[in-house]
Amino acid sequence: MNEIMAIIKNETEYNAIMQRIEELIVLTDDSTPKQDKSLIELDILSELVEEYEDIHFPIG
Predict the structure, then answer these.
(1) How far is CA 52 from CA 3, 11, 19, 35, 41, in A?
(2) pTM over the 0.85 mark
(3) 3 in a structural domain
(4) 59 with 38: CB under 8 angstroms?
(5) Per-residue pLDDT of the chain (60 residues; tens, 9 = 90+)
(6) Is 17 exposed, middle or buried (0-12, 13-18, 19+ CB in 10 A)?
(7) Cβ atoms of residues 32 and 39 within 8 Å
(8) For residue 56, what are the contacts with CB-CB under 8 A and spacing of at least 6?
(9) How far apart are CA 51 and CA 55, in angstroms?
(10) How far is Cα 50 from Cα 60, in angstroms, rounded to an integer?
(11) What span, in angstroms and rounded, lies between the C-alpha atoms of 48 and 20?
């Protein structure tokens, strides 16, 4: 996993990022080029969410 320079600070930020991820998902698919700005943004936000969820919603 890549080192993340930012973190999600609270539930409000988390919810806003989740909403943005939903918007980006419909703009990308398996054929989207890796250089596409929407896919890059989706990857970055997904990593932020993963880190936040690991801390605030641990599984097991």
Answers:
(1) 14, 9, 15, 25, 17
(2) yes
(3) no
(4) no
(5) 566 578 999 999 999 999 999 999 999 999 999 999 999 999 999 999 999 999 999 987
(6) middle
(7) yes
(8) 14
(9) 7
(10) 15
(11) 12
Cα gap 2→42, rounded to integer Å: 14
CB 39 within 8 A of CB 33: yes
CA distance 29 to 36: 11
For the chain, the domain total comes to: 1
Residue 29 lies in a domain: yes
Q: Which helix (H) or strand (E) holds 32?
A: none
**Domain span at 42:** 11-56
* 23 domain residue, yes or no: yes
Query: Does a structural domain hold residue 6?
Result: no
